[in-house]
Amino acid sequence: MAKQPGAKSLPLSPQVLESQGVLGALDLGAEAFDPKGAWNQTYAIWVGGSDPRAQIDAGKPYNMLEIERVPGGADGGFTLRVRESLPLERTGGRHETTAEIARAGDALATPLSWRLRAQTFDLASGKEIERVRVEKDGEVGDGSLVTRCGGRTVEAKLASKEYKYIAYADDPVEQLFDLKNDPGEMKNLADDPAHAAVLKEYRDRLSEWDKGLERAPPSEKARGARTGDDE
Predict the structure, then answer these.
(1) What span, in angstroms and rounded, lies between the C-alpha atoms of 195 and 204?
(2) Of 85, 88, 93, 188, which alpha carbon lies 20 to 30 A from 77's?
(3) What is the SS3 assignment for 230?
(4) What is the SS3 string spanning 81-148?
(5) Rounded to whole angstroms, how far apart are CA atoms 72 and 33?
(6) What is the mean pLDDT of residues 105-131?
(7) Does residue 137 lie in a domain region?
(8) Are 120 and 93 in contact (CB under 8 A)?
């Protein structure tokens, strides 16, 4: 919704945006747009004041939304990147949220990996305030799913047609389900001696697969915490 001072909220339409001067410098280019190709689009959003164009031209902070599509090869896969930048005028900062997801070239565009990051920067110096950074990422493999927070594995799943194995960070309780005889995953077999060999097989497979995953670099806070533990 777009809003003018002293007026009710208006529907966000090309006519309203044009009347507020937001579309004045918009150049769509002469080339045809290919939604399945490589492209990058940037938007100025939630611009306040009676003259948004003057605010932008004056260099005043405003919200930015950037969307980028990067083709990933002959198989038709691609990576989608989204970044939102939000000024925090009261605190003199800027909050930035980024998301990156790699997808397969199949009909469902199946997710292969993803990374989410929320960061806050000091507006004057441009330096990040690392203590408030939040990072999450994950990857999907052959019947496997691993999610991490700050570079540490927080949840891991390994499944086949016969069994599903689930493990969480900082939680000694493992889960093992017989998908053929218990499709609803109601009975945890991790403590069943009869399935000890199966449990070890899946535990070892997941451990080996997890070692090969790309890790997000740790934040300065995390590095400092580890250094303190070493001391």
Answers:
(1) 14
(2) 85
(3) helix
(4) EEEEEEEECCCCEEEEEEEEEEECCCCCCCEEEEEEEEEEEECCCCCECHHHCEEEEEEECCCEEEEE
(5) 18
(6) 86
(7) no
(8) yes
The residue range of the domain holding 56 is 38-132
Q: Does the residue 217 lie in any domain?
A: yes
Question: What CATH number has the domain bearing residue 172?
Answer: 3.30.1120.10
Whether pLDDT at 64 is above 50: yes
Question: Whole-model pTM?
Answer: 0.59
Q: Does residue 157 sit in the same domain as residue 127?
A: no
pLDDT in the model for residue 36: 82
Domain boundary among 101, 132, 163: 132
Q: What is the mean pLDDT of residues 114-140?
A: 87
Q: Longest Cα pair distance anywhere in the chain, in angstroms?
A: 73
In terms of residues, how long is the chain?
A: 231
Residues 87-99 pLDDT 10s: 887 777 888 999 9
The total number of structural domains that make up the chain: 2
Is 6 domain-assigned? no
